[in-house]
Specification:
about 50% strand, three-stranded antiparallel beta sheet, globular, mainly beta
């Protein structure tokens, strides 16, 4: 389902734990928190606020 990135809570180099919120995406007027699946360090952020995204689009990359 297509959506729009509302906010990004992390920057490259940030350490994150499993379940940490990294961004918020709005779809069908509902906001969904996107959380990490594992511990790691943010390597790359592939989106910016207000970008349109689809299912399976990469949002952030962990090392």
């Amino acid at each position: 389902m297509p959506g729009k990135v509302i906010s990004i809570m992390v920057r490259p180099g940030d350490r994150v734990g499993a379940g940490d919120e990294v961004c918020v995406v709005e779809a069908m007027k509902m906001e969904q928190s996107i959380r990490t699946g594992r511990d790691g360090v943010i390597k790359t952020i592939h989106v910016q606020p207000m970008d349109s995204v689809s299912a399976n689009d990469p949002l952030v990359e962990l090392e």
